[in-house]
Design goal:
- The chain is about 50% helix and about 5% strand.
- The chain contains five helices and two strands.
- A two-stranded antiparallel ribbon has the order 1-2.
- α1 runs parallel beside α5 (about 135-160) and α3 packs parallel to α4.
- The radius of gyration is 17 Å and the shape is globular.
- The two termini are about 15 Å apart.
């Protein structure tokens, strides 16, 4: 397995999942998506915003890893979160535009600018509390994708409780079939 190819598949999966969720959530009113459902991030919009906040924070950090990472600079045009609970986009229509932008720049970065060697290096960054840390860059990218998947699982439950189905959520659909 080539790590860069795997990350590209993960970005494709991320985009597919966000599109599937958007197609379902688009049918709901802003009142319903902001309703307190007793979830960790309160509501559907709270959970969606948390995922996006995490992506913005991590991709902003990743943008400093190499001067070749021009695609990731696009994330700096979005509102800068101050905390993990920030609601950057309370209306789904504006959230959807930002989500699509982040998904596309993540894919373009991986397809056009990242290299497998990048993921063997370490990234020094400061967390939201100002604590400096240094960790393996590839593992941090794995964390970004895992974070998205984890919270989309919560969203799937919230939507299911509303009688809504987002469809097949398996990563398996992105893994190419190989002939023997």
């Amino acid at each position: 397995m080539n790590l860069l190819s795997h990350f590209i598949l993960m970005a494709d999966y991320n985009h597919r999942m966000n599109t599937q969720f958007s197609d379902v959530i688009d049918k709901l009113s802003d009142e319903r998506t902001n309703e307190d459902l007793g979830a960790y991030f309160t509501s559907i919009m709270g959970t969606l915003n948390h995922i996006l906040v995490g992506d913005i924070i991590w991709l902003s950090r990743f943008s400093t890893h190499s001067s070749h990472y021009l695609e990731l600079k696009g994330v700096l045009e979005l509102p800068k979160p101050k905390g993990l609970n920030d609601i950057l986009f309370p209306e789904f229509s504006s959230f959807k535009i930002a989500r699509e932008k982040v998904d596309l720049l993540l894919s373009k970065w991986l397809q056009n600018e990242a290299s497998a060697n990048d993921f063997t290096k370490n990234l020094a960054y400061s967390n939201t509390k100002g604590i400096i840390s240094t960790r393996n860059f590839g593992e941090l990218l794995c964390h970004l994708f895992n974070h998205q998947t984890h919270h989309r699982g919560q969203l799937s439950t919230l939507l299911n409780q509303q009688g809504l189905d987002v469809g097949v959520t398996d990563f398996l659909l992105e893994i190419p079939e190989v002939s023997t």
